[in-house]
Structure prediction request, 258 residues.
Amino acid sequence: MKVSVITAVFSNQAFIHDAINSVLSQKNVEIEYIIVDGGSTDGTVEVVLSYGDRISKFISEPDEGVYFALNKGISMATGDVIALLHSDDFYAHPYVLSQVVQAFEETNCDAVYSNLYYVKGSDTNKIVRLWDSGVYKKADFYSGWMPPHPAFFSKREVYSKFGSFNTVLKSAADYELMLRLIFKNNIQLHYIPKFFVKMRTGGASNRSLLNRLKANIEDRKAWHINGLKPKWYTLLMKPLLKLFQYRFFSYFRPDKSS
Prediction:
């Protein structure tokens, strides 16, 4: 199986090389690497071009944000499996994608997901939070669950059938995508209980209380546009469960958090 890895980037000269190197160092797997740049002028484009034809497809042009860029990459992909890796993130070791492919071949599932480390931006060996997804049960979405989309690997045909990111949403398009694919359309999942991705801390939706409130409104909208109704506690639990990802609170966390 060929894996199409898509990285969306805008003005991230400092860290894009970590993402690229982690993809190009993957072993025992066929990779199509697609990088979609939003028209950077800080040197990001030059970093990408320095890798030459090791990058399968590269486009640099103004866009309307990360979800537009990811959709563009998905439309360009020809692999059997699609992986999404942000420019701040990188794979934890060189056998991530080969283990993903093995899981697809052994289970014939629609999508594979795993866990994610949040790491300190200045020291990526320092783990700040643990996104330990756990085995999915349908009721989990009511309790605020979702898998981390950088550690979510789907067959390309899933996007063809059910669509990609809804760009009406600004901060919850990843949540809406997971809700639509997994909860609404019941794609077949396989969980690998390993930490496959390292993500630098500092997500836009969590930078301030105002941003978190805006994200919560969008989370509610994600249910509404899919014709679904959350429980009264669902959107309260989603940010609350993030506390259990931090190292101190992780000693008390339930089996799953998101």
